[in-house]
Amino acid sequence: MSRLILSLLMLGLGIVNVAQAANEEYPYRVRYPDVTVITTDDLNKRFNEVVVIDVRSKYEYDTLHVKDAINIPLKSGFGDKVAALRQKQNKPFVFYCNGKTCHKSYDAALLAEKARLDRVFAYDAGIFDWAKAQPEKTALLGKSPIKTEDLISGDAFHARLLDPKTFSSKVGDKTIVLDVRDKRQRDTALFPFKEQRAQLDEMKKIDEVVDDAKAKNKTLLVYDEAGKQVQWFQYYLESKGIKDYYFMKGGAEGHFNAMYGKVVLGSGDKDKKEEAKPAAK
Q: Quick count: other Cβ atoms within 10 Å of Cβ 11?
């Protein structure tokens, strides 16, 4: 009897460990229990039976996306747009974003259901898992199929990050600073009279700045709002053959946090601040 109880306990612990591992890999699933998810294998098997919708920004989509996916960024009017699309394509909808720590695919599925659509799924493994598993059904910078070795690894991206203090110390005659934030994000310049500005969709201007840095053999220092969009910008720089470039870790937000400390919201003390954590070494 004791062996039976022990076996049941071991089985129970195994189930808990499997569930815990799943929650750690997909941290948002527990927060979206009503969203139906689809795996990489199942999406591949049903690829021609569904409509795949990329809910990220156009810039992210243009850089790397599931082949034949439709780009509908998750913003105002999203529900109406997917409802109109269902009138044209009466197939199940699969929404995806950047991966396991991105919740946009879940939000998209909920908004679609709110718009009275059925047969909606979230592909929460995201674009990177898909690109690695299905390179022949992936587009990179407008070309498909892709080579998995052309995907930029997390290590390769992090090797280009400089903490705000180090980034600032490099600003000078031997560098060109490029602010790629959207115009609505540019409340102030971080390096007045020492930087150039071009948002990511202003490709002609970006080409001019990047070509100038390359021609003058200067280091290109790039920052965005929060240190996320530069990950996609790296693909452009690599395609241009730029080798001497760095990004500011945390973007403009990281810069202000390093200078003034990070404001803790909901602490009950409006003046309370948290010291910015040093960059990982």
A: 10
